[in-house]
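Researcher: Please predict.
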Amino acid sequence: MLSINADRLKKSVLELSKIGYNETDHGMYRWGFTDADMEARRWMMEQAKAEGFKTFMDGAGNVFFGIGDYSKKPAILTGSHLDTVPAGGIFDGALGVLAGFEVLRSIKENDVKLAHPVWVVGTAEEEGRFGGMMGSQAIAGVLNPDWLMSAHDADNVYLKDAMAAHGMDVMDALDAAWPPERLKAFYELHIEQGPVLFQKEITIGAVEGISGVFKWIVHLKGKADHAGTAPMNMRSDAFMGLADFAHEIERIIAEDGTDKTRITVGKVDLKPGSPHTVPGEAVFTIVGRDMSNDVMKELADSCNKALSAIARKHRLKFEYEQVSWLNPQACSEKLTKQIEEKAKARNYSCLKMPSGAGHDAQFFTEITESGLIFIPSVNGVSHAPDEWSHWHDVEAGCNILLDCIINSAQ
């Protein structure tokens, strides 16, 4: 049974982790379309070229490399994203791209004969700096010009400007779509980003479906006042509105959510931001997740109602912008079963499970059969500098990816 070169894969992961590394907090900083993000894309293309693989970057910033001509026969595509959240870990996203790279190297050096091309993608802007998963959305052909021109991050930096800073035209992302007939299947290997596999000591997760996600940027606007002279009962304190909403989250989930529901306030900015001034404005993000689109709609409506009532209570103006809405998606039953079978063949323990986090694979389900493979995250940690997966689990996941790709490409 063919296996990947684990030492070579480890070396690639550690080399890529030098790009965007922060020595102060030990986190990765490859936020979408920053200098470090683009440096990582160029590095990946250089590594692929050095191995003799064809490579290119499309108008959305997605990096591709592979073997075979997908214009003549549908390809097996695998990969994940190269960008990270601020202060992220070294495995999230990058592992899936480098695992695909290692699969290609293993296929080439063992002269494996395949009937279909095999390509790897390092998608752009998956972590949602500008909302959504722009790279995989571009490949799936679900982007539109209005969104591309209006998309911005929580600091009001526009996507079009961030791309222009690197010599890219945001509208070129519309030309990045892959026709469904060009693909036979898509596979993504990813760390779980949760504690289930680690706690249950299970090596492989065969993902049956991916949670939907909505993201809001909320503004609660009151009146800035002197912290010493403004009476407590006469304030329009924007922070108190935010605090009240935080206490409402548990009730909203209990009434309108499920055991799969997650609601998170992840980024907060209080203005004017002085210790001696009552906050006149609170700007914050809300991210909601669930496996049901109907439940997500109920959650969004409940958040809206709760914030409206809180704003009236504290004499605030409430506004919000829905940055993105990603529907829940089911993975291919055929490919999920294949992942389970390949794990059994290698004597790896395997669990069929949902994904609470969003992944590129959910957009590939729009155009081809998609399979998502999880490996354990130590203590469930992700999106943090201490994110870690054991190298033996990394090797196991990559071997399953190799087995599935060879099977689909024959």
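Model: The first helix runs from residue 6 to 16.
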